[in-house]
Amino acid sequence: MKWTEIYIKTTEEASDAISEMLTTIGAGGVVIEDPNEIRRQIESPGSLDYADQDFMDSLGTEVTIKAYFNEEHKPDELAALINEKLSFISQFLEVGRGYTGYERVDDQDWATAWKKHYKPFHISESVVIKPSWEEYDKQDGEIVIELDPGMAFGTGTHETTRLCSQLLERYVEKGDQVIDVGCGTGILSIIALKLGAGRVAAVDIDEVAVRVTRENCEINGVVKDISVSRGVLSDLEPAQADIMVANIIADVIVDLSTQVPKYLKKGGILLTSGIIRERKEEVIETYTGMGFELVSVDEMGEWVAIVFRCQDSL
């Protein structure tokens, strides 16, 4: 079997969004080569690694993303679709050079060899993500969610997803009504339900994301309690949810600010992430300016998660 290996040159801030996009359009695997991460590891306090300045300078700052598509995807059609998606992302993030070409590569058992790199891991204190081919002995109090990552070894779980998972564990209470805006693979919807939520409404503008979310709900036996639809928040019927999670990007989160009060009950919690550090204050000022209470700010790497409470006065 042959694979199409496509190359994208981008910025650090856009790498997570682009990787997620590639997965949703059918990539069997995504690998990120980030020189900024290498530099941070070498320069971190207590690191035993050493590199001279010439080497450090040679790393540059451009992030390379490689994605692998099977023979069902025609290279020319794939390139057109990727460029269309990159154009959309560029409205919100600096995407850099973007798509730079592709190569055809042999399988050479690559499609299965990568699995050794992906093991069960804690995405939050009690939630464990487990690939289907791995055995895992569940410990008392743990929640195990089964998700196959595709061949995305080396990337780990996005920091924004980890932040949201930890916040859901902090705030979800039994029976809560939850809305997941921009659900992606559905991982946060599934986590919310497994943590005790009574019902989750998941919505995403991407039809592939909607399909993948439904498949993951089926795998984890939560189809009955998670409704998945294609669209935006305003396409949902006004609700009185206890929690809304929006792991998107700063621009969309800011745009949602006037709609959120229609979907959250008074005292309800809004969990936002996908926000780069440079946009943190803008998001905070937007929501507090509308009367939301700022509850907390958490950071991981270059990413920020912000929690707001919907006030009675809204």
Described by strand count, sense and barrel closure, the largest sheet is:
7 strands, mixed
Q: How many β-strand runs?
A: 14
Give the SSE string: EHEHHEHEHEEEHEHEHEEHEHEE
Major sheet strand order: 10-9-8-11-12-14-13
Could you tell me the CATH topology label of the largest domain.
Rossmann fold
Helix content: 25-40%
Shape field: globular
Overall description:
There is one protein chain. The protein has 314 residues and is α/β, with parallel strands linked by helices. The chain has two domains: 2-108, Alpha-Beta Plaits; 157-309, Vaccinia Virus protein VP39 (Rossmann fold), CATH 3.40.50.150. Helices cover 31% and strands 29% of the residues. The protein has helices at 12-24, 35-43, 53-58, 75-89, 110-113, 159-171, 187-194, 207-219, 250-255, 280-289; strands spanning 2-10, 29-33, 63-69, 98-106, 121-122, 127-130, 143-146, 177-181, 199-204, 226-230, 241-247, 264-276, 293-300, 303-309. The strands form three sheets. Strands 10-9-8-11-12-14-13 form a seven-stranded mixed beta sheet, with helices on both faces. Strands 2-3-1-4 form a four-stranded antiparallel beta sheet, with helices on one face. α1 (12-24) crosses α4 (75-89) and α6 (159-171) runs parallel beside α7. The longest helix is centred in the first third of the chain and has 15 residues, at 75-89. The chain is globular and about 60 Å long. The model is unreliable at 45-51 and 151-156 (pLDDT under 50).
Keywords:
10 helices; alpha/beta; Alpha-Beta Plaits; four-stranded antiparallel sheet; 31% helix; seven-stranded mixed sheet; Rossmann fold; single chain
